Amino acid sequence: MSTNCKTEGGVDTPAEPRSSNFIRDIILDDLKANKYAGQVQTRFPPEPNGYLHIGHAKAICLDFGLADEFGGRTNLRFDDTNPSKEETEYVDSIMADVRWLGFEWDGLFYASDYFDQLYAWAVQLIQAGKAYVCDLSAEEIRQHRGTLTQPGKDSPYRNRPAAENLDLFARMRGGEFPDGSRTLRAKIDMASPNLNLRDPVMYRILRAEHHRTGNKWCIYPMYDYAHGQSDSIERITHSMCTLEFEDHRPLYNWFIQHLGIFPSQQIEFDRLNLTYTLLSKRKLLQLVEEGRVNGWDDPRMPTISGIRRRGYTPEAVRNFCGAIGVSKTHGSIELAMLEHFVREDLNKRAPLVMAVLRPLKVVIDNYPENQVEEMDAVNNPEDASAGTRKAPFSQVLYIEQDDFREDPPKQYYRLSPGREVRLRYGYLITCTSVVKNEQGEVVEVHCTYDPATRGGNTPDGRKVKATIHWVSAAHAVEAEVRLYETLFTQEDPNQLPEGQDFTANLNPNSLERLTRCKLEPSLANAAVGSRYQFERLGYFCVDPASGPGKLVFNRTVALKDTWAKIEKGQRGKN
Ligand code: ATP
Ligand code: MG
């Protein structure tokens, strides 16, 4: 499937799809040619400057999935070359998220493990006349750099003798110079059409405490100087990364070649973009810091911790990542496609229960006042072995406000005055009258039931068009239920009116909290993280904010609501 796919229709989903892709083909060819002595060694290299998101899941599934398939190994490596933005909290969350997705790394490394080696290699490049200490400021380096159409200008320090460079570099490390006053640069080609090769900076002076090396260093390697060599040190055979690094590959290869070290092969693929979603740690951090969401694991966030809290399953995410595949062109995937895989997986595993989110009281006038019947309710229509449970039925019930209309529009078949409907696993009831409050709103619906229809059957074969769910009022447990819409209103949240930032596209209705929802009593002790299908409403998951006597559910994903579509269609015609 191409990543440009914009619809979820007709998606084929074998349990763990292993469709081929161009990266897999490269690995197959390399194995055939015995290129790395039959080895496949990959790595997932996050920078610990934020929480992982669903885009990272794509990279993780690729890195771990391909190595697994070919009996290879995968390292988790933290690319921690930027001390000012990195934190241990992020390291911990990243490890938890990779494991949650179902993967276990072979080696656990940090680019900072290699700081000594990288320093030694920098000295080696200086000695070989391939690197020099430059006294230009960051701004001057930018000015010298040229543009895509204009070659750059050589730094006046470019031809310093090696001995002077060695001395200055050692003194940079020794803390003799202020932050930003000097850099170490690779001596490549200021006229290269590839800007990354115009004497890129390898080291900068930066007095910042590092989450692992503390204050040992006051110079730090640039990402571009550290990344390729880190791959090489770990003898990574296939180093997968996103397309924006394509132009950096010649630089990584230049370092590898001039150092004469293990030649890791970098292969680029397209970043995941999802409609109505932003996948950028920087922007997600902004949402967290500005309090636009309730932390990195807010269920509206596209972070792994957010979708986990929301109730997505790792299987659903892996199946989605398998189905979208990889390509060399940028595209955007419909959020609906991800939701499709979530529904498909939850449909198999989430027990079915009854819950009423917006309760409307129903009184069955001819039902004995103190009688309670235990109705057999099916736990999972997809899986007979999941068995049945008892759902108590009594005179006073709750149904959804939506399942009653005093003046039913055409094609509305649920409860309304004089209309008979089936209560799931219960009886057929007919509405006889309503009670209204002072504002004229219906607050109570009175009905009669037909005792011959226990279990929802009609011995005389008469048909009713609607079956609705319910909860016995006396037995219900109360819960808060949080409903979510997309975090952004625009399909492309980066599409903005002049002069506004992406937060202008935030959806003010992305969270709706319903309190006093009524759930069937079997949910009284539902564990945090457990997932259910609420009949006719969607898939829900118990939020960690739950505690003894306090249940909070998140709606993971709604079912497709055919009525909402009809109603929308009718509105469209008027
Ligand atoms: P962001 O732009 O969100 O900060 P990043 O690329 O800076 O992401 P890293 O921590 O450097 O984040 O990413 C680790 C790995 O995950 C890299 O190999 C990167 O290419 C990959 N990756 C990041 N975002 C995506 C995405 N949207 N789709 C696929 N892979 C991604
Ligand atoms: Mg990055």
Task: List its salient traits.
574 residues; alpha/beta; 7-stranded mixed β-sheet; 25 strands; elongated; disordered N terminus; binds adenosine-5'-triphosphate; binds magnesium ion
Please, could you describe this protein's structure?
This protein is of the alpha/beta class and 574 residues long. 26% of the residues lie in helices and 22% in strands. The strands form six sheets. Strands 10-23-24-25-21-22-11 form a seven-stranded mixed sheet, covered by helices on one side. Helix 11 packs across helix 12 (335-349). The longest helix is centred in the first third of the chain and has 16 residues, at 54-69. The chain starts with 21 loop residues before the first helix and ends with a helix. Mean pLDDT is 94; it is low at 1-17. Adenosine-5'-triphosphate is lined by residues 45-47, 55-56, 58-59, 241-242, 271-272, 279-282.
Q: How are the SSEs ordered, and which strands pair?
A:
Blueprint: H1 22-32, E1 41-44, H2 54-69, E2 73-78, H3 88-100, E3 108-110, H4 115-127, E4 131-134, H5 138-144, H6 162-174, E5 183-186, E6 201-205, E7 219-221, H7 223-233, E8 238-242, H8 249-259, E9 265-269, H9 281-289, H10 304-310, H11 314-324, H12 335-349, E10 352-353, E11 355-356, E12 359-364, E13 373-378, E14 388-393, E15 396-400, E16 420-423, E17 428-436, E18 442-449, E19 467-468, E20 471-472, E21 477-484, E22 511-519, E23 531-534, E24 538-542, E25 551-557, H13 562-573
Parallel strand pairs: 1-2, 2-3, 8-9, 10-23, 12-18, 16-19, 21-25
Antiparallel strand pairs: 4-5, 5-6, 6-7, 11-22, 12-15, 13-14, 15-20, 16-17, 17-18, 21-22, 23-24, 24-25
Adenosine-5'-triphosphate binds at residues 45-47, 55-56, 58-59, 241-242, 271-272, 279-282.
